[in-house]
Specification:
single chain, 3 strands, mainly alpha, olfaction, Rhopdopsin 7-helix transmembrane proteins, cell membrane, G-protein coupled receptor, transmembrane, olfactory receptor activity
Length: 317
């Protein structure tokens, strides 16, 4: 049971001005090894996602296609999502104290949910794009116009902003007067609100309902969309092509939504594997997305080859 702060002490809620991130280890030799590993992950994330964005922007065919326009936006979101947490994690590997000021903690929490929710909504938009392309091919270019694509991307960002604003407002109204250690390597809603001094039952329920509902409902919509696509296609050849086209999307959806549902859809409980699961969707998935899309997509690989050839270098994918 949490201890209620003394209402007579006006400074109770001002005592905690910084938090301590638990991190992964307090052994310097292990931390240095992890620094090298996660630096590799972060650099790979930047190289892969920037390469996709440059390829889509420089190729007229890809740039005019709704699917690749959305893919370029997904790569940008992956870069943002990884950058919210990974630079601080890398710095903490070289810092024994692992301190984060209260304001920076709240900012990290805000942008984590802002970009994360926007990516969930964008993946749902990409599923709709595939549905229209496969089930209504003759009307695809008319329905998925550039104007609609831009509006859907803007709506994804707006949805993420609204979701994150709600989460952040609920968090900053909580009193924090100790303890100070956040049981993760970044500030997120579940571990931060567990440090509050007051009763957080209702707020925790609202937060879990918010995040858990968005991740679970989006995942159900995505799986239903891809299932509908496969059911509507009768021929074996058409189904094979649909599986090839949607396979990369399904892999990304599983890698991203699986850990999110595990973390946010279960109220009032923590597990020892939460930290490792957080690594999966914060660090690993943004790095793997470019590989998943390029290795399974001949058009992207061909466009990358042309881009490389124009640079005057020799390279074969």
């Amino acid at each position: 049971m949490k201890v209620e702060p003394d209402p007579m002490d006006k400074n109770q809620t001002e005592e905690v001005r910084e938090f301590v991130l638990a991190g992964f280890s307090h052994r310097p030799h292990i931390e240095k090894g992890l620094f090298v590993l996660f630096l590799f992950f972060y650099v790979s994330t930047w190289v892969g996602n920037v390469l996709i964005m440059v390829t889509v922007a420089s190729d007229k065919h890809l740039n005019s296609s709704p699917m690749y326009f959305l893919l370029g936006n997904l790569s940008f979101l992956d870069l943002c999502y990884s950058t919210v947490t990974t630079p601080k994690l890398l710095a903490d590997f070289l810092d024994n104290e692992k301190l984060i000021p209260y304001d920076q903690c709240i900012m990290q929490l805000f942008f984590l949910h802002f970009v994360g929710a926007a990516e969930m909504f964008l993946l749902t938009v990409m599923a709709y794009d595939r549905y229209v392309a496969i089930c209504r091919p003759l009307h695809y270019t008319t329905i998925m116009s550039r104007g609609l694509c831009c509006a859907l991307v803007a709506a994804s960002w707006m949805g993420g902003f609204v979701h994150s604003t709600v989460q952040t407002i609920l968090t900053i109204h909580l009193p924090f007067c100790g303890p100070k250690q956040v049981d993760n390597f970044f500030c997120d809603v579940p571990p931060v609100i567990k440090l509050a001094c007051g009763d957080t039952f209702v707020i925790e329920l609202l937060m879990v309902s918010n995040s858990g509902l968005i991740s679970t409902s989006s995942f159900v919509v995505l799986v239903s969309s891809y299932t509908t696509i496969l059911v509507k296609i009768r021929s074996k050849e058409g189904r094979r092509k649909a599986l090839s086209t949607c396979g990369s999307h399904l892999m990304v959806v599983t890698l991203f939504f699986g850990p999110c549902i595990f973390i946010y859809a279960r109220p009032f409980s923590t597990f020892s594997v939460d930290k490792l699961v957080s690594v999966l969707y914060n660090v690993i998935t943004p790095m793997l997305n470019p590989l998943i899309y390029t290795l399974r997509n001949k058009e992207v690989k061909s466009a990358m080859q042309k881009l490389w050839d124009r640079s005057g270098l020799t390279w074969k994918i």
